[in-house]
Sequence to fold (426 residues):
Amino acid sequence: MNCLEFRQQILVDPYTKFGPAENHLSQCERCQDFANEIKNLDANIYQALNVSVPEGLGAKVHLKQSLSEQNNPHKPQLWLALAASLMAVAVFMYQLVAPSAVQPNPTSAIVSLVNQLAEPVIAHVNHKSHDFYAVDHQPISNTDLQSVLSGLSAEIGTKISVENVLYAAICPVDGTRATHLIVKDGSDKYTVVLIPDHAPSKAFEIDDELWRGYISPHPAGAIAVLAAATDNHAVARIKEINDQYIQSFYLSAER
Amino acid sequence: MQEKRLRYENLVNAYNSWLYRYAYWLCGEKATSEDLVQETYLRAWRFLDSLKDEKAAKSWLTTILRRENARRFERKQLAYSEIELDSLPSEREDFDTRPEVLALRNALRLLPKKYREPLVLQVLEGFSLEEIANIFDLPRNTVATRLHRARQKLRKHLNGEEQLVQVNELP
Ligand SMILES: [Zn+2]
Fold:
């Protein structure tokens, strides 16, 4: 290890005990001075960062949580509505994506769901942009994807490849701005919806006539993954795909 | 329920100080930092079941707080009222007022956020490079470069070689 490498390493992380660096350090006086300077700098950085915490902050957090629990009992209705919204989106998509496939009377399914739906969702499923579903999908450009995701300050993590995203849009679902993706995984297609702020207390399955799905909580909201019920291969992997997205969806506006 | 509460209380007691300080170095305001900690824990309570491994708790809470801070700017953006500061506003701090520490605290406020943030995680709370890379979803090398530059910039600022200046950046 030479002086430059040593200095680079210590500027990145002055705390690790480096094997090759220790040799260099014992032989090089100038780097000893440098190492001391950086350790001294870091000690001061620590002191500068270590601002005082308001007294009783932990107790205030406990109190606020207890109060919110009293004022905010569970809202199962909201979740029913959301699941219904997703299904309506899914049913509508299914019609467009797979018009030739077997359709166990989707119209009546939509009609019964429409009765429970909020106006924005109806607007959503009827929106012109969703004609896109009828088009044969090509992977979208990274720029397009990022521009959709930046609307939510969301980004797909490195674990999910952009080439697998066939469609991306910001869609109103149950009054919130959801990120709506169509992705492929091998030969399987999935609809992935990230719903900010809407948080189920635990994961649950959607078992619709036409669609199978899985919705699970995420620190940023909820992630729903849907596959056509007729596609056994895709259906079998819904939870796995959901897991992948839970791990890979970051909401990091601040890179 | 009792078990959940106990688990939650442990998380509050163990990490509220860290989260407050992290929030402070994200937003630069005491009152906002306190709000961010509150919001983070409310969210953590709701999603506690999704935290499988207690060892990941610190990273998990840190990620939530980071997200809450981003959400704050989304709301502000909608109002077209404020832009996010890349540098932080200065606020009176009565803790450790030695001149070299004050100079450094001022320099840290001026340091662009992408350098400041990983430094806070590493120096203040001992996050490893891998943990920081995971929280930011960035390659390890990128994090290493930012930490390297962060220390270089602070050194040069303090030596008078290259002054850090207040920078405003559109979000
Ligand atoms: Zn040397």
Remarks:
- Chain A touches chain B through 48 residues (CB under 8 Å).
- Residues 98-251 of chain A form one domain.
